[in-house]
Amino acid sequence: MKRLILFCLAIIPMVLMAQQASTLTPDKIYGDLFIQVQLQRIFPDGKTFVDCTPKRKVADIMYDYGLAKGPNFNLKKFVADNFDMPVIPTINYTSDTKQDLATHIKSLWQVLKRNPDVAVEGSSLLPLSYPYIVPGGRFREIYYWDSYFTMLGLKESNEWEMIENMINNFAFLINTYGHIPNGNRSYYLSRSQPPFFAMMVNLLADKKGASVYATYQKELQKEYDYWMDKTAATKHAVTMPDGSILNRYYDADIKPRQESFKEDFEIATTESRGDAAAFEKKSKELRSGAESGWDFSSRWFADGESINTIQTTNSIPVDLNGLMLNLELTLAKAYRQTGNISAAMEYTNAAAKRKAAINKYCFNTKQSWYYDYIISTKKQSTEQTIAGVSPLFFNIASKKQSAAIAAVLKAKFLKSGGVVSTLKTTGQQWDAPNGWAPLQWIAVKGLDNYGLKNQAKDIAARWVALNEKVYTNTGKMMEKYNVVDSKLDAGGGEYKSQDGFGWTNGVYLAMKAKLQEWKKTETMPRKTLKKGILQ
Predict the structure, then answer these.
(1) Which of the following is catalytic: 117, 146, 295, 372?
(2) 295 is catalytic
(3) CATH number listed for the domain at residues 2-51+86-530
(4) Is 479 among the residues known to form the active site?
């Protein structure tokens, strides 16, 4: 154990960009102090210490720590004396449940808003120049894929300036670090999250016009190059048996996550049995699971049950490749906008090849569902998850496939409060019985893309009703919900249930607007419908 602790302090990521290497993470800043605070669990949540800010110069704190260590040393008091705890403004926010939920959310945007950051020595925060919306609770910074779903609600609230501010912050992160990290913290720099930047640009283009594509062309290209390993050897791109290229999640680091250090350290230690290479491998798999956003789920487990068998980097996720296809199509729009027709055709063709590869490797004809693909076995995963509906969201499936997928969705995934993430109950937060706002939206929008309005409407109505019930009971919007037993106020998982909550707010407002739109079209006179107003 002691040898592994020392090893963990010493190991350095094998693959880090130059800019990342110059940004010190808490373990490098605080060394043994960081290790002891995390392993002794001075705070119930491992994210607390890495978000603390020093009250005085780091060098002075570390000098005093070296002098003070000993048998009577009070570590908890030392931390309290030398660090300011992170502030969570939403803890003291009181909601008025007499307000309707949409009004509550629109007022909550100000609570979740953060103004431009100021750099602080010893802080893990990567300063951003524009205001932004945070998810809430322990999530005190901007998060990558969360933000797209938050923007859906900002759109309904007519908060276009905030949407553009957040996109500009992400453009800054791409230009500064070569990619968009998981969140704007130094300890997140070794990984990204599901690449929704192109979706954000498309959202803004719907409002401001096609010139938006030219504005962010450079950043779109850098995002693509990062995921395709053209600017950093991150190993996100995988050559398939037929020579086509698909993508996977792959964190560049090989240490336990800073914000979940004790949990990851214990899993990696147990599984590695003193083998340093095995320790690194397990840590990378856990980190890569965090890059997927599905942290954690039986989806990534080799045995479909235990996190000890996590194999994220061995999976070709169907939804990630849908996002990459969308990025390629968005790049084609950007190059067309700037007059580079040959580049536009290049990315249009790349998207077509990716679509064919997704259908070849991920669609299971017998089961009428899309699965992740396992690299080592050269076979589809046996884990059936709600990610299988994502090809409808990205318009990858055929019309015939969409109807069959909708039938499976209704039979297996639809529950009283919406759609469940997986069909297994493992205790992991991205498994049953939990449902998450982004996955509800992907299912609803995907079904609607194929004209399957009634089923899309059913899911949206169930999710909206669940959100409203929990809000009435608690005055809160939660990070996730138990969609199987809708009598409960929130879903369980890796950490205490969070409230706020950015993407839940966004998807609720978008769902509510969609339900109103459908209701309006259903009550339109038949003559009006025939005139093509709905086109």
Answers:
(1) 295
(2) yes
(3) 1.50.10.10
(4) yes
